[in-house]
Write a structure and sequence with these properties.
3 strands; alpha+beta; three-stranded antiparallel sheet; 3 helices
């Protein structure tokens, strides 16, 4: 089981990191379609364009898969992996 505190502050207990991204989209009332790849890329774009995140090296955010995405955000200090088995 994985336990991760996500960007939104929500604490997730999941089997894999893809579930976290799915849940974050499902909670959004404006989400019309769940698409993990699109979510990861749009999150990376948000980091790139938002002045609040200009201290983040966006080139280090990986979007090739959910595992790499969450781990790259953890390396940047944006999420915390509390338990990883």
């Amino acid at each position: 089981m994985k336990k991760v505190r996500w960007i939104t502050g929500k604490l997730y207990r999941v089997k894999d990191f893809a579930e976290i991204i799915w849940h974050d989209q499902a909670r959004n009332p404006f989400c019309e379609k769940i698409n993990n790849q699109e979510y990861m890329e749009s999150t990376k774009d948000y980091y790139k364009t938002s002045e609040a995140y200009n201290h983040i090296d966006v080139s280090k955010i990986r979007t090739d898969n959910e595992e790499a995405f969450v781990r790259s955000l953890a390396k940047l200090g944006e999420v915390k992996i509390l338990l990883d088995d």
